């Protein structure tokens, strides 16, 4: 199917020229005005815009100062909510006081969709404002628990200690109950 | 499909054979104005296009099949990658389809928020169109102005959704969170600036004689052809067909807001441009009404952790910035959809390209392609 | 000491010419650095950007850095290119620009080659540019380049005619084909831009100049959204640098030529003549850039139709007026 | 004549002759077109040596610029210019040889007749007077040949336009 272009309107070169010139000047007024306007460039590496509180950047595991442990109990609800299988974790202990000894996020395949955060009933995981996550190495996209936990290695160690202590306390409390049942 | 004139035809016209053979030129998949990885195989006679063959599929990710392998709600983030310039529209499209499939009610406030975001998204998407269309025609400054204003929209959307491009902010049963504090005022502030900027665009581009001579009468798509191909959105509205899903089959609260559907009769590049410019103005109108009328209340319906809609089939359509975006989902009662199909507006709109291009000049190619405003993420899926 | 040098060059005029040629060639290579920087800054400011910022104060040395980068880059010759012509095309463009600078009077006595047919010479030499573009477009063995080259030639040839006609109006008004003579006439009788037929001629010249240096409404030969980069698509490294340099030096020259023809060249109060020349040139360059960053580009048939159906007849009529009014 | 002048003259002559030979002998038509450039420049150089700056500028403007570009442009619109198997001659070869030979003969006769008036070193030439005389003669004594030439060029142009018309477009308009 061939669509023919209709005959162009009556071509009056002079009128077109004058119109073209005047509309050009008219447009040049806009560029002139913008020439003097403040510029919008953000000089990025030197200047950064503040991130809004809801910004979805790098993940963090929340540190509970009061209980001296990470909020995460290793329930894997976030891993189940993830469409691209980013999250994997190793559960530490069991029951209500359980925690995680390892929590890995492969951000190379993360969609930053927020579904894991919404799935978490313990408010253990959240997304922070860090956004410069690119790297030249593939394994740099793999974030281990120490990279994710607020407080780093120190927090992870304290977390494990706390969870183990809680487990031990639970264990201590349990034999009586268990013996009673048995 | 006309190929170079046959020898017999030539000989009746002129005894001297000076017609050159068509020169085949490959535009794309890496080319400044194919807006992605579209490839066009053009046969040229000088500057004239004799034949055009679009080649698509360079961005194919098998999205529909991927969706069949995942629970319903996991599929929402994937739709961000369809029409990446209007990710929220895709989110809404799939969520609506799932809601229909599962019979989920959406709270009123969530519906208003959805409409608000949708119209902001429409402005952002049309600004990309405006900017790239400007550069395609050589008005580089327009590109930066449009993107400057798009940045304002993106800042707003970022504040609300937490992302700048792939928002994933519509959930089955509502939206994940309420609007942030003071969002309405910020939007109104943007609307105020944007009104003035739209005037500036008109002054810079719309009224420019060169721009008009580059767009008027170029790439005319007659109404019948537009209908026959099933085009939608600004493309069909510029061909004189007042078809807008927001009016034809209102979803969310579009039946409660007042707006006009811009229609132009000419069907050329100029008309498609004008329709989009007017749509941005109408979006402003809608935004103002939504901010005026938005009720208080919850924004999300509680859904079970494992969402299993009853067996059946659901089809939903929305008006994305590019046209009628539809999702079809078939459920067999299991947590995963049995079949997903996406009707991408760009894909359908692109199909008219070869018939529009025949007989035009190379320079018109970019104008026509730009005016159809395709997004390859949606075409290749 | 100075006398000795002067005497030495007086004894060997050929050597003196050679020195002048070298100076002008380096000028042609260096002035683009300034013009490109101005272009980037102006473009940036018009587009709500800041432009180059980091290399040197306000990014002044950005173009120097870019030039160095281009000189150090690998020189890629596409396979199947017509090597000989591919190699020499940028240099022909460059030489044509240098040659046109030869007859340009910067200030009284500051002219490399005093020629009494300078105006014709400039126009003749500028056509070499067309040859180089055609050569580059054809020898690159690239369809985009070829299309760009053909477009460039059609456009440049079409606009050469009204340009020559509008320049001839000045020639008839002043009765001189020499640029120095034209400027001296203006020093004596006032700038020509205030004479009605010359005003129109200047407008036509301005439009044609935009077309000659491929500025936006007429930037078809390198319309990047259609032809990638037009005739210089396949060029890289130093050869590209030469095309680029000659384009921007041409930009400088075509405004300097306009200054000499219409705005009294070096004429102006208080400041030294050379400053006036540069002032006028840079004001005009700014206007060129301002125009460049405003409208979209035309289509090839529109451009040609505009030249042949409007500019040529108008400039012919205008020339007639100029002859009637000018020749006394 | 100083050694330098002689060297320049020899160089110019060599450039002109060699590029002229290249124009007719190169197999690639586009190359032949580009070889026209040094040829025209060489001719211009002779004018410059004779202090005929006006003619030199015209030579640049008309031949090296306009004519050459138009020739090249026409060549590029021709099909198959780069094919080295295309024959370089056609059935008019003999006629062409005869025509150029007779032309050469005429030129030789003219040169031979004027031998006495030729000097090795060009004297001081009043370029302005020559230019003025040239203009006067073109518009008085030789006005008829001058006008005939322009009529010829005009008809050639019309013919070219006729040939270059796109028959397909015409067809469409007729159907249209």
Number of domains of chain D: 1
Q: Tell me what portion of residues of chain A adopts beta-strand conformation.
A: 5-15%
User: Per CATH, what is the topology of chain D?
Assistant: Four Helix Bundle (Hemerythrin (Met), subunit A)
**How would you describe the oligomerization state of the chains in this entry?**
heterotetramer
Instruction: List the total number of helices of chain A.
Output: 5
* Number of beta-strand segments of chain D: 0
Keywords:
C: 328 residues; 12 helices; globular; D: 176 residues; mainly alpha; Four Helix Bundle (Hemerythrin (Met), subunit A); 7 helices
Provide a descriptive summary of the structure in words.
The complex is a heterotetramer of chains A (182), B (381), C (328) and D (176). Chain B is built from 16 helices and six strands. With 381 residues, chain B is mainly α. A three-stranded antiparallel sheet of chain B has the order 1-2-3. Chain B has a three-stranded antiparallel sheet with strand order 4-5-6. In chain B, β5 and β6 (339-343) form a beta hairpin. Mean pLDDT of chain B is 84; it is low at 1-19. Chain C has one domain (67-325). Chain C contains twelve helices and no strands. Chain C is globular and about 55 Å long. By secondary structure, chain D is mainly α. Chain D is built from seven helices and no strands. Chain D has helices at residues 3-25, 29-49, 53-77, 93-113, 127-139, 143-164, 167-175. Chains in contact: A-B, A-C, B-C, B-D, C-D. Chains A and B meet through α1 of A and α3, α6, α7 and α8 of B.
Summarize the structure.
Chain A has 182 residues and is of the alpha+beta class. Chain A has helices at 13-36, 77-81, 115-119, 145-148, 152-181, and strands at 59-61, 63-64, 69-70, 87-92, 99-106, 125-127, 142-143.
Helix-strand blueprint:
The complex is a heterotetramer of chains A (182), B (381), C (328) and D (176).
Chain A: H1 13-36, E1 59-61, E2 63-64, E3 69-70, H2 77-81, E4 87-92, E5 99-106, H3 115-119, E6 125-127, E7 142-143, H4 145-148, H5 152-181
Chain B: H1 7-13, E1 23-27, E2 39-45, E3 48-55, H2 63-68, H3 76-79, H4 87-102, H5 108-136, H6 140-161, H7 183-206, H8 209-215, H9 223-229, H10 234-237, H11 245-248, H12 269-293, E4 312-320, E5 323-331, E6 339-343, H13 345-350, H14 353-357, H15 362-372, H16 376-380
Antiparallel strand pairs in B: 1-2, 2-3, 4-5, 5-6
Helix pairs in contact in B: 4-5, 5-6, 5-12, 5-15, 6-7, 7-12, 12-15
Chain D: H1 3-25, H2 29-49, H3 53-77, H4 93-113, H5 127-139, H6 143-164, H7 167-175
Helix pairs in contact in D: 1-2, 2-3
């Amino acid at each position: 199917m061939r669509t023919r272009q209709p005959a162009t309107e009556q071509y009056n070169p002079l009128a077109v020229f004058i119109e073209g010139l005047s509309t050009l000047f008219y447009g040049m007024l806009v560029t002139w005005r913008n020439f003097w306007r403040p510029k919008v460039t953000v000089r990025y590496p030197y200047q950064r815009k503040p991130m809004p509180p809801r910004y979805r950047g790098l993940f963090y595991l929340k540190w509970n100062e009061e209980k001296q442990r990470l909020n995460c109990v290793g329930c894997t609800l976030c891993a189940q909510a993830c469409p691209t299988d980013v999250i994997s974790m190793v559960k530490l202990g069991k029951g209500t006081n359980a925690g995680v000894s390892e929590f890995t996020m492969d951000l190379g395949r993360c969609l930053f969709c927020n579904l894991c955060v919404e799935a978490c009933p313990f408010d253990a995981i959240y997304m922070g404002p860090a956004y410069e996550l690119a790297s030249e190495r593939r394994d740099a996209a793999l974030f281990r628990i120490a990279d994710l936990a607020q407080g780093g290695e120190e927090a992870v160690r304290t977390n494990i200690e706390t969870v183990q202590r809680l487990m031990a306390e639970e264990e201590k409390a349990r034999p009586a109950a268990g013996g009673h049942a048995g | 499909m006309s190929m170079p004139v046959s020898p017999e035809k030539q000989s009746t016209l002129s005894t001297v054979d000076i017609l050159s053979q068509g020169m085949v030129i490959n535009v794309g998949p890496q080319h400044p104005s194919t807006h992605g990885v579209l490839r066009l195989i053009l046969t040229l006679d000088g500057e004239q296009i004799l034949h055009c063959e679009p080649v698509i599929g360079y961005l194919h990710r098998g999205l529909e099949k991927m969706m069949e392998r995942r629970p319903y709600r996991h599929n929402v983030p994937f739709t961000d990658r369809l029409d990446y310039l209007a990710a929220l529209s895709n989110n809404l499209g799939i969520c609506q389809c799932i809601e229909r499939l599962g019979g989920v009610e959406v709270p009123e406030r969530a519906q208003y928020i959805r409409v608000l975001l949708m119209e902001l998204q429409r402005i952002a998407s049309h600004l990309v169109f405006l900017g790239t269309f400007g550069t395609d025609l050589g008005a580089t400054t327009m590109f930066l102005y449009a993107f400057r204003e798009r940045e304002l929209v993106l800042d707003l959307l970022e504040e609300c959704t937490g992302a700048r491009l792939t928002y994933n902010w519509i959930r089955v049963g509502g939206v994940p969170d309420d609007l942030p504090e003071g969002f309405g005022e910020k939007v109104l502030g943007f609307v105020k600036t944007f009104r003035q900027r739209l005037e500036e665009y008109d002054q810079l581009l719309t009224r420019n004689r060169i721009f008009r001579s580059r767009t008027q009468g170029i790439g005319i798509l007659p109404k019948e052809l537009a209908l026959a191909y099933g085009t939608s959105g600004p493309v069909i509205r510029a061909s004189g067909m007042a078809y807008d899903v927001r009016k034809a089959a209102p979803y969310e609260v579009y039946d409660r807001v007042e707006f006009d559907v811009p229609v132009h009769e000419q069907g050329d590049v100029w008309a498609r441009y004008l329709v989009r410019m007017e749509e941005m103005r109408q979006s402003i109108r809608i935004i103002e009404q939504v901010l005026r009328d938005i009720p208080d209340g919850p924004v999300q319906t509680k859904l079970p952790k494992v969402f299993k809609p009853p067996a059946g089939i659901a089809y939903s359509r929305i008006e994305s910035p590019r046209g009628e975006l539809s999702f079809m989902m078939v459920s067999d009662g299991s947590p995963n959809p049995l079949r997903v199909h996406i009707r991408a507006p760009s894909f359908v709109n692109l199909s008219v390209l070869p018939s529009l291009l025949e007989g035009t000049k190379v320079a018109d190619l970019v104008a026509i392609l730009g005016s159809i405003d395709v997004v390859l993420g949606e075409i290749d899926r | 000491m100075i006398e000795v040098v002067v005497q030495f060059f007086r004894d060997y005029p050929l050597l003196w010419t050679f020195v002048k040629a070298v100076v002008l060639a380096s000028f042609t290579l260096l002035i683009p650095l300034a013009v490109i920087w101005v272009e980037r800054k102006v473009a940036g400011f018009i587009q709500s950007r800041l432009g180059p910022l980091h290399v040197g104060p306000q990014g002044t040395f950005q173009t120097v850095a870019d030039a160095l980068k281009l000189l150090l880059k690998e020189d890629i010759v596409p396979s199947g290119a017509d090597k000989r012509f591919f190699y020499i095309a940028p240099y022909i463009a460059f030489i044509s620009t240098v040659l046109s600078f030869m007859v340009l009077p910067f200030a009284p006595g500051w002219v490399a080659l005093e020629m009494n047919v300078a105006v014709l010479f400039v126009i003749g030499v500028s056509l070499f540019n067309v040859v180089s573009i055609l050569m580059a477009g054809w020898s690159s063995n690239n369809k985009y380049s070829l299309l760009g080259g053909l477009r460039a030639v059609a456009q440049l040839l079409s606009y050469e005619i009204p340009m020559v006609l509008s320049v001839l109006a000045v020639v008839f008004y002043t009765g001189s084909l020499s640029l120095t003579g034209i400027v001296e006439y203006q020093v004596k009788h006032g700038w020509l831009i205030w004479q009605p037929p010359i005003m129109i001629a200047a407008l036509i010249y301005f439009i044609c100049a935009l077309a000659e240096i491929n500025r936006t409404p007429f930037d078809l030969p390198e319309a990047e959204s259609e032809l990638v980069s037009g005739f210089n698509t396949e060029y890289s490294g130093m050869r590209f640098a030469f095309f680029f340099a000659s384009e921007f030096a041409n930009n400088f020259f075509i405004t300097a030529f306009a200054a000499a023809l219409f705005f009294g060249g070096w004429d102006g109060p208080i400041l030294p003549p050379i400053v006036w020349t540069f002032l006028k040139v840079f004001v005009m360059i700014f206007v060129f850039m301002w125009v460049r960053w405003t409208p979209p580009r035309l289509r090839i048939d529109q451009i040609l139709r505009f030249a042949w159906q409007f500019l040529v007849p108008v400039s012919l009529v205008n020339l007639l007026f100029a002859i009637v009014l000018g020749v006394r | 004549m100083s050694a330098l002048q002689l060297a320049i003259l020899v160089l110019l002559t060599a450039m002109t002759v060699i590029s002229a030979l290249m124009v007719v002998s190169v197999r690639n038509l586009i190359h032949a077109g580009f070889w026209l450039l040094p040829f025209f420049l060489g001719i211009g150089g002779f004018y410059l040596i004779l202090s005929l700056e006006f003619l030199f500028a015209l030579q640049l403007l008309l031949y090296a610029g306009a004519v050459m570009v138009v020739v090249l442009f026409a060549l590029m619109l021709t099909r198959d210019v780069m094919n080295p198997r295309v024959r370089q001659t056609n059935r008019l070869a003999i006629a062409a040889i005869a025509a150029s030979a007779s032309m050469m003969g005429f030129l030789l006769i003219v040169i031979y007749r004027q031998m006495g008036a030729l000097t090795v070193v060009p004297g001081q030439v009043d370029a302005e007077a020559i230019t003025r005389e040239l203009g006067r003669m073109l518009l008085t004594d030789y006005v008829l040949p001058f006008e005939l030439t322009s009529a010829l060029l005009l008809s050639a142009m019309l013919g070219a336009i006729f040939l270059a018309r796109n028959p397909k477009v015409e067809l469409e308009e007729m159907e249209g």
